[in-house]
Amino acid sequence: MSDSNTNLNAESFSFKAETKQLLNILIHSLYKDRDVFLRELLSNASDALNRLRFEMLTNQNVLDSKAELAIRINVDKESRMITIQDSGIGMTKDEIMENLGTIAQSGARKFLEATKDNKGDFTQVIGQFGVGFYSVFMVADWVRVTSRSHALQAQAVSWYATGDDSYQISAGEMSERGTRIEIKLKEDAAEFADEYRLKNIIHRHSDYIGFPIYVGDEQQQVNKQTSIWRSSRQEITDEQYKDFYRQMTMEFEDPQTRIHVVTDAPVQLYALLFIPAKHERSMFSLRKEDGLKLYSRNILIDDYNKDLLPEYLRFVQGVVDSEDLPLNVSRETVQSSGLMPKLKKVVTGQVLKELETLAKKDADKYSSFWIEFGAYLKQGIAANQGDGESIHPLLRFKTNRQPETWSSLDDYIGRIKDDQKIIYYIIGDDPKSVLRSPHLDYFDKKGTEVLLLTDAMDSFMLMGLRNFKEHEFKNVAQAEINDNEQTKEDNEAQKIPESDFNELIERFKQTLGERVTDIRASNRLSQSIARLADAEGSANSDMQRVYKLLGKEYEIPKKILELNPAHDILKKLVEMKPDSELSALVIEQIYDSALLVEGLHPDPSSMAPRIQQIIEAALANKT
After folding, report:
1. Contact 603, 573 (CB under 8 A)
2. Are 155 and 200 spatial neighbours (Cβ–Cβ below 8 Å)?
3. What is the rounded CA–CA span in Å between residue 441 and residue 431?
């Protein structure tokens, strides 16, 4: 076989700039794991076979309709040649130019960006950006791809490249359907011209490809070709589950948990699902988007089906295979099948059931899951209220009484007094600052437990979280308290005389104007100087946060400013001259600090000049 393309009728084409840059990286950089090229080529072959099998469900009038759906690899050690051939759907001239002659500009650019910080090892990034075929140039002096489409009248076409600036297209010699890839190995890649070496790579990366892979003259397939999801759970080891997950996703961390389901009613399905270790995919992941692999009777229908799980469970990876799904539907219309809602109900129920079991059996492991994926379940509470009762047991919170550990709603109810029918919560920007909120003064003194809601999704969650086991959720900022409970403490406190306090309130009103709806004495503050309370009939504070998080046009809400009549700062303020500049500065700062605590201040940095003035005044009085 010649080491060059000798066809005089070949047409030459130039690669685009991004492709040239990408090929330069692949050819001239050093790699830790060059055997990734075989994984990528076998993955492409598997996809071609899947597409052909799907096509044949409705169209038997294809070239070589009786040919086995398989991948065959031959090696010539002396000439350093590898040939990989599949009996898949094949390509026309236009398709081969589209698939091999160009790389999607966005994919190439993203690949190049990803390689900048990857310290020279790009092998695991390749498949993520649609450039997997080009990994062959890590090991090849030249590559020839010959393909013949499944269409009866199609002609074979050949594509040839050496990895430089151009490629050639010519008529090909191929009587059978499918694609043949001939690879002339570089001298320093001669190790791959060895059947035993290639078999090891297949076992490592491609064992679960759903079509037989044959190497050399042997008629025994190398890969297991096992639909592991259709196997009995008792027959599969933990390591086999992990191998399948790694091959499907190319994630290096083991999944947090797996869910292997086989059901006969109300639908017949096989499902093998995984919850990843992290909510963000690694840059090495083969899975490019959300969705489950959907099979019908072992035939891949959709690689990224988003109709099998609600959006809040979109982090789940895996396979669903149903005997009941009709095969005469296209990938585009599969969601219109009446079976899909039933499949979704079963798969969703199994995932939620498994998470609840995990939470009961292994609290530490579930805490790790919650830290990574809790925000998704909160989204489910807000957007899928029909699933609320199933999600409620999965929610976890920290509280003012248990700030370092995660508690379920059942844990919370188990610790409160029997006559307490309210689940109290407080919203803040972060776990530490919320514990210093003035809204907690009264509840801390009474020993009342309060949920700390400091995640951005919490305000959205509250839109669907109203009650739990006959307990109503209540924001401590809005909760009413019994005035009589504070009477004794109030009498003992050294409060500002009523006439002086009323005069102070007027000074606050003159300074703050219409920014507040009212100013009054508080019956619940002990350590804090002030707090902002919702005016009756005003917009709910939780909804105000939602608007802010959504980036909608936002105005500082007008609230009631409550002051602590026993606080030393207010006592000092009473002694200041009402018209003094420092008095006005302090009042402004008290109000801005209350806004800041609420997480409602639109521009916290604007306080800096005023704080400096107050410090200067305080130091001047000390000298």
Report:
1. no
2. no
3. 16
Residue 375: per-residue pLDDT: 95
**Residue ranges in 338-385 assigned as alpha helix (H):** 339-361, 363-383
Query: pLDDT for 407-432, tens place per residue?
Result: 999 999 999 988 899 999 998 888 88
Through-space distance between the first and last CA atoms of the chain, rounded to whole angstroms? 96
Phi and psi for 248 in degrees, rounded to 5? -75, -35
In b/e form, how buried is each residue of 62-95, taking b as 16+ CB within 10 angstroms? bbbeeeebbbbbbbeeeebbbbbbbbbbbbbbee
Q: Cβ(103)–Cβ(16) under 8 Å?
A: yes
Contact 138, 34 (CB under 8 A): yes
Q: Considering its fold, how many domains does the chain have in total?
A: 4
Domain carrying residue 66? 11-215
Closest CA to 563 of 522, 594, 526: 522
pTM for this structure?
0.69
- Give the CATH number of the domain where residue 200 resides: 3.30.565.10
> What element of type H or E holds 24?
helix 17-28
**38 and 127 assigned to the same domain:** yes
Residue finishing a domain among 180, 215, 250: 215
Examine residue 557 and say whether the peptide bond preceding it is cis (omega within 30 degrees of 0): no
